[in-house]
Amino acid sequence: MDNFYNESRPVIENGKLVFVSNGGSRAIVGIQQVRKTVKALEGKSNLRPSSLATLELYRAGIALWEANR
User: What domain of life (predicted)?
Assistant: First the structure.
């Protein structure tokens, strides 16, 4: 069973990409770092479920960033 607080979503706040959890915490990760991480994860095989979740979250963040540019 997933924990309620483990859910995050990307948002744009003050021109920055921010990942907000349901618990209210915010993680400001630069778009360049997000792109680097996605590229690195895509190059790997046999990813763990947490890495797959991070990859999907970061892909959603990139899509949101591109839609707002």
Answer: Bacteria
